[in-house]
Amino acid sequence: MSAKTETIFKILKVFSWIVFIGLSIKAGALIFNYIFAWFNPAATHNLYDGLDLSALYQSNEIYYQSILSLLIILSISKAHVFYLIIQIQSKLNLVKPFSEGVSELILKISYSTFFIGILGWFTREFSRWLEKRGYELGSVGGYWEDYQAFFMMAGIIFIIAQIFKKGLELQNENDLTV
């Protein structure tokens, strides 16, 4: 492996860690503020990064908890995808790139991204339903507006997982014939 390729892999690994940590902080802040709001409802005015669900909380606490729970699950799921990417980066061996562990991780990423797409779509539809009934949600839409990209990403990663699986079969077959 060339020095340039090694440098690129190191940069990608650092980038993946930064994104993972950022998404984990976001999920952790949402969880913390969700719990904190049980004891101090004023916390619903700024849950995370300007997210204000206080009007929804005052109107209907069950819908508030539903929306916030969906946002937390979305945030955790996005962080989980980057955790899987970090695992791939630590297991990947470019001398023998096709391994069972990496193949399984790629497939898990495709399933996770598909789940994020479905959950994002469901959350968007649920929020539209709430807004049609007069509930104010503020700027909550930014948490799932990228759900279509996750559907597309899931499809592409699933295809890559299948190619990787075939490459693993060919690599194992080649090892047996040598």
Automatic annotation (TrEMBL):
Species whose genome carries this gene: Algoriphagus boseongensis
Q: Which residues cross the membrane?
A: 12-39, 62-85, 105-123, 147-164
* InterPro entries referenced in this protein's UniProt entry, alphabetically: DUF2975 (IPR021354)
- Tell me what this protein is called: DUF2975 family protein
The record's annotation in Pfam families points to: DUF2975
Record keywords, A-Z: Membrane, Transmembrane, Transmembrane helix
Please indicate if the UniProt record lists Transmembrane as a keyword: yes
The superkingdom of the source organism is: Bacteria
